Amino acid sequence: MKIFQDPLPFDGVWIDMNEISNFITSPPTPLSNLDDPPCRINNASTNAGLKNATDRRPFVLSRSTFVGFGKYTAHWTGDNTATWDDLAFSIPTILNFGLFGIPMAGVDIYGFARDTNEELNLSSLDPGVMVSPVLKSGATPVNAYFPVGNWFDLFNYSSSVGVDSGKYIELGSPADHINIHDSEGLEKTKGFKWYELPTCKETKSGNSGIRASFNCNGLFDKLEKSGFCLSLGEEFKLEQSSTYLLLIFFLLVHWVPLISGKEEKEEVVGYGYKVGSVNSGFSGKSLTADLSLIKESSVYGDDIQHLSLVASFETKNRLRVRITDSKNQRWEIPEDIVPREGHSPENYLHYSPLKHRVLLENNLLSDPNSDLLFTLHNTTPFGFTITRKSSGDVLFDTSPDTSNPDTFLVFKDQYIQLSSRLPIKRSSLYGLGEHTKSTFKLKPTDAFTLWNADLGSANIDVNLYGSHPFYIDVRSASADDKVKAGTTHGVLLFNSNGMDIIYEGDRITYKVIGGIIDLYFFAGPLPDMVIEQYTELIGRPAPMPYWSFGFHQCRYGYKNISDVEGVVAGYAKAGIPLEVMWTDIDYMDAFKDFTFHPTNFPLEKMKKFVNTLHQNGQKYVLILDPVWPGKVYFPDFVNPAGLEFWGNEIKMFRELLPVDGLWIDMNEISNFIDPTPTPSSTLDNPPYMINNAGVRRPINNKTIPATSLHFDIMTEYNVHNLYGLLESKATNAGLINSTGKRPFVLSRSTFVGSGRYTAHWTGDNAATWDDLAYTIPSILNFGLFGIPMVGADICGFSGNTTEELCRRWIQLGAFYPFARDHSSIDTTRQELYLWDSVAATARKVLGLRYQLLPYFYTLMYEAHTKGTPIARPLFFSFPRDIKTYEVNSQFLIGKGVMVSPVLKSGATSVDAYFPAGNWFDLFNYSNSVSVSSGKYINLAAPADHINVHVHEGNILALQQEAMTTKEARKTAFHLLVVLSSTGNSTGESFLDDGESVDMGGVGKNWSLVKFSGGIVGNRVVVGSNVINGEFAVSQKWIIEKVTFLGLEKTKGQFDLLEISGLSQPLGQEFNLEKTF
Fold first, then answer.
1. CA 262 vs CA 180, 212, 265, 342, 629: distances in Å
2. 745 pairs with which residues across the strands?
């Protein structure tokens, strides 16, 4: 050790793996009973060796310990994991080692394994200091036990807790705070406060003084003594006769950091604005108000003195409120980056001049076509509300609580705060992403940070890859029944800067570090209508090619092209449909984009492989992932030259290898280097730190500097969250230019409007049962965000999956809009054919998926034309049923197919919620569930089964199972008519070639068939209405069979009727009937 210390004067030694750990299992020595741990000598020897080498007190940290080891070493608790459970486990572990005589003990802060999402940092303090941490995700209070006595908050000495006998006390614990209290000192001391003292040798004389006040009833104040300085290395005594304060101070008693002796009152962030002049546009469609600052505050920077507010109706269902600096232009998202549809309806009605004047005099903005009403409140501070005229229901209310400055509008250069009240008992919020959450409905303790980051989606409640400051609010019925249950509106804050959004149940508060306030309100009044109105503004979702609805297989870690070919062969041998084969960065030469590894994935072999896939009706998708080779350049997609460069690269690459789609990853932007912030830059270090990664880490961490400049002098600070959107847009255009076909792009990073260009997957999840369950809220959220083509890595990306977990995951994943199995390089293989039970289940569930392909594809058409999600929460179809607002573990495909998966290990049944009506099992039509009002039903769910039901009133156009979508499209159609107990049944099927750039629209290279059916007397009937039937006729698609479900023979028992042996052209209108 001395020899090693001479060239490298290290200060301590960390000895690990000294149990002894061995990666090889050694055979035991016959008849040996020697098992005295040799690491005992290791610790003592290291301590002595280090002392000899440095001639100073040694510091040794050892993983392995034994009785008496505290004499030589400190200890840490080893390889913990970045989970909340591990955080809680650390306390008993550290306390145990105190008992073992090893007081210098700690744990790996933030966790050793997996990506962290920790919000706390615990320290080891002396016996008089008590630490009361938050140990659960999302918690803001903590119940802490206080032994008898007086305890003082070490972050705020004027705050204290006094108890006559031990008791639990609930303490506030906001995200940036941990409760640490010091117990009282000498018996007669009622309170104290430490002050920073100059480090001089003598005590100053002169105008020094002491101020103290104590309350005999146990209310504590503080003692201040100033005007002197003491040497902290020497003992000293302070006496005050009025309270007989005796305080002996030396460094080993309390090592509390000394703070400034100047007592500072915490300053509020801002004081709000007042209304000046108010004007209305000539047409009456807008209202403008001048706002002026009430009082200045320097917290988070200087306030902007004068603001301009403009409220305007853009359509009858969309109201915009824009607030910005009235004197200086600020960053706003350019129209060419996120195009917005801003038209007003042609049949816009004007109020009479008298009505217009009355509205203006009352600071109101109304549209005779709209149910929305904007009201400007001339209070101090001012506020505004958005209300429904039909019911008086207040949708958004910024009226300030004058006793709470956190509710005031604050507008600074790098800090904007806006808050709205909510009716906590009637308001159910959904949206605000991207985050992994355990529930779909937002919880009153939720906080959302929006700053695109390379954080694995296995981490819950932290900012992930995308930013979507949009939510819908589904209201329960009002007491006067003017508001019907399910009445819904939407709210978008159109801002690309980093932000925290705090949801407290009765209030939602935005804290944004730049840009402007640009709010859009969508009237609904039903959930699907809100999404239609939202996507009308931000852009309808891109149409996806038909083949993309097949099953996809990928893995990071395929060794070579032979390995990939073996996977394709494995699926074929097992009889499991495989539509698309993917490869991760393994195919690249030194991980460089648009290259091929010369040995493992040589171009000629790749061409042969892709050609074989295409001959089999299969597709191939590759990743573009420009962060792995080392130092790299990131294309600037703001720059037109960057778009041209990217498009040319795609074109040249596809001329080498005709890939069918592109997967763009790590585009948050992710960076493996933490850039050094520019000195004194408030862009790299803004005054308000958003809760990045759940620990308020700097915004530059693991990305490029916020000071970086894009084209047209746009800073990364402003456009950071737009990079994934811009790359998606460029990649989409590049593929269209190269192929002339409908592009398929899969992007990890997204923003408002990304659905125009790309599909999305939920990122790096883990092979756990929790992660399986989390996929449902995540997928439903992206449907709200206008990105309906979404899925999660089936069987889990990180960690080793199990046979049971993979079996249950493919049962669920088969009904994701985008269905792909994907795993990480450091995990066991998980192709579906590797376990017999998983293979059998995969054949079953993917068989049903492929039968439903026409339905999935028609839902894509609906999403493209209306914005409606493919996977939907139950309340989209059943908005009046308030119990559906709480459902997190089921979802609908379209309006009427309900998926109820098993999400727990070992379960063989599932409690599924059924809204009112008759529901039929799509695996066995003779099984049904009938409920007169919504209720939970316990369903059998054996290991090989997932429950999928169709609701009455739906007509599904099905085709037959096949190994590829190409083969499935050649099969005959089967109509499944689920008769309604209350009216007609309906359905439709959209048909085209599945790959043309446009989906529908001008031209007649598509057909839309609308079905209707029901009971007429003693007959069941079904018919069609066809738009552009010529295309469907040219493809020779026919209906071979019609099945009617829901003909009740006795209560809860139903007959099944069939019309078979048909050759009815799908493109020709028809009417069929059968007598019962």
1. 22, 15, 10, 54, 53
2. 662
Each residue's pLDDT tens digit, 321-375: 999 999 999 999 999 999 998 765 444 456 666 566 677 778 999 999 999 999 9
pTM: 0.79
User: Average pLDDT in the 836-846 region?
Assistant: 98
Q: Give the three-state DSSP class for 476.
A: coil
Q: Quick count: other Cβ atoms within 10 Å of Cβ 136?
A: 11
d(CA 775, CA 768): 11
> How far apart, in whole angstroms, are the C-alpha atoms of residue 126 and residue 98?
12
CA–CA separation, 400 and 566 (whole Å):
65
What tokens appear for 967 in the block? 């083969």
More confident residue, 432 or 243: 432
Q: What is the per-residue pLDDT across 505-523, written as a single tens digit (0 to 9) for each?
A: 999 999 999 999 999 999 9
Pairing of strands 179-183, 149-153: antiparallel
Left (φ > 0), alpha (ψ -120 to 50) or beta: where does 111 sit? Answer: left
Kindly tell me the burial class for residue 771, based on how many C-beta atoms sit within 10 Å of its own C-beta (0-12, 13-18, 19 or more). buried
- Beta-bridged to residue 291, according to DSSP, are 275, 307
Closest to 581 measured CA to CA, from 563, 596, 595: 563
The CA dihedral of 191, 192, 193, 197, to the nearest 10 degrees, is 170
Tell me which residue has tokens 């552009």: 1028
Q: Confidence class of residue 948 from pLDDT cuts 50, 70 and 90? A: very high
Number of H helices, E strands in the chain: 16, 59
Tokens of 186: 């000498």
Tokens 């695109």 found at: 452
User: If DSSP states are collapsed to H, E and C, what string results for 389-418?
Assistant: CCCCCEEEECCCCCCCHHHCCEEECCCEEE
Given a contact cutoff of 8 angstroms between Cβ atoms, the answer to whether 322 and 309 are in contact is yes
CB-facing half-sphere around the CA of 73: CA atoms within 13 A: 29
At 25-57, the pLDDT tens digits run 555 555 555 544 444 445 667 777 767 777 788
Catalytic residues: 665, 668, 764
Measured between alpha carbons, how far is 680 from 678 in angstroms, rounded to an integer?
A: 6
The H or E element spanning position 1050 is strand 1038-1050
Give the Cα separation of 270 and 293 in Å (integer). Answer: 9
Q: What is the DSSP string of 552-608?
A: EE--TT--SHHHHHHHHHHHHHHT----EEEE-GGGSBTTBTT---TTTS-HHHHHH
Portion of the chain with pLDDT greater than 90, in percent: 72
Whether the predicted pLDDT of 260 surpasses 90: no
Query: Are the C-beta atoms of residues 192 and 223 closer than 8 Å to each other?
Result: yes
- Residues found in the chain: 1076
Do the Cβ atoms of 330 and 515 come closer than 8 Å?
Answer: yes
What letter represents residue 617's amino acid? G
Strand partners, 619: 580
Q: Are strands 60-62 and 13-15 parallel, antiparallel or unpaired?
A: parallel
E strands present in 184-234: 209-212, 223-226
266 contact partners, CB below 8 Å, separation of at least 6: none
Could you tell me which of 499, 517, 443 has the C-alpha nearest to residue 691?
499
Distances (CA, A) of 238 to 91, 190, 316: 37, 15, 73
Q: For 51-75, what is the mean pLDDT?
A: 86
Question: Residue 1052: what pLDDT?
Answer: 78
DSSP label of 954: B
Return the axis-axis angle of helices 803-813 and 836-851, rounded to nearest 10°. 0
Q: How far apart are CA 876 and CA 858, in angstroms?
A: 17
C-alpha to C-alpha distance for 753 and 339, rounded to whole angstroms: 8
Q: Which two tokens stand for residue 1002?
A: 């001008």
Q: Which of 123, 176, 186, 184 is nearest to 153 (CA)?
A: 184
Name every residue whose Cβ is closer than 8 Å to that of residue 642 and which is 6 or more positions away in sequence: 635, 636, 711, 730
